[in-house]
Amino acid sequence: MTERREVRIDQEKGRLDKVLSDQLNDLSRSKIQDLIQTDQVTVNGQAVKANYQVAKGDKVVLTIPPVQEVNLEAEAIPVPIVYQDSDLAVVNKPQNMVVHPSLGHPDHTLVNALLYQLDNLSGINGELRPGIVHRIDKDTSGLLVVAKNDLAHQSLSKQLKDKTVDRHYLALVHGHVPHPKGTIDAPIGRDSKDRKKYAVTENGKEAITHFDLIRYFGQDYSLIQCQLETGRTHQIRVHLAYIGFPLAGDPLYGPKKTLEGPGQYLHAKTLGFDHPRTGQRLSFTSDLPQVFQQTLKELDLKYK
Length: 304
What we know:
Layout: E1 3-8, H1 16-23, H2 29-37, E2 41-43, E3 46-47, E4 59-64, E5 81-84, E6 88-93, H3 110-117, E7 141-147, H4 150-161, E8 166-174, E9 181-185, E10 188-191, E11 194-200, E12 208-217, E13 221-228, H5 235-242, E14 266-274, E15 281-285, H6 290-302
Parallel strand pairs: 7-14
Antiparallel strand pairs: 1-4, 2-3, 2-4, 5-6, 6-7, 8-13, 8-14, 9-12, 10-11, 12-13, 14-15
Organism: Alloiococcus otitis ATCC 51267
Pfam families: PseudoU_synth_2 (PF00849), S4 (PF01479)
Enzyme class: isomerase
């Protein structure tokens, strides 16, 4: 059962994560940091960062999900491996696959498939997320880099933090995007009205998405390429909905029952980074899934 705790700040001073770990002896500081990072800790009703400086009178609320026991097993699930060496692998995740086990998705994930196909995975992210450096949504297809050891994991994580990883996505959106290119710079956090969703919020984390128009399908749809500068949860989906051009096939942030398909039309097409050991720049490209390609052909015929 999910547990809810309230902490009132009286005389305490300093970082939120440290103050909470001093007061809550049964929760480690790393666990508290995980809760903060996933927006399950609020101060006066707002999600904050771990380095937030507490003040007298602050009301801190922690939402602690139940401990989930997962028996992580290797599963013979076919996932295309685009490239691999002794340090890393680049995989092409299919649509409708969760990246790692979580509440409600204990198995049949990308991690289960990787345990079967790869000889080793880094352990930095814990036993449920071995090798996972970054994620894409369940219904987003495309390229991910996976770390086989801690050296690779640390290097790739730093490149993501330093914004030197190239990540380009193809997105089919509703509407006629009026600009050939643009940048969406709007912070993202949990939606205060629906905890399953994210939204542009004043107190959210920095989120920047660049986009280039590729083509129109009449006035109804546009095909664009998005480049991530940051990597917030649901970032492209939230940003495109925010500017009025939601992803086609996305029932959470866009209109329901539009184009047929297994989920949103979003594909991680290109991925580029420096090799953790050699420093060589690597770049990879993946083809659109068959359902995405077929939909574009049908729209092309419809709007000729």
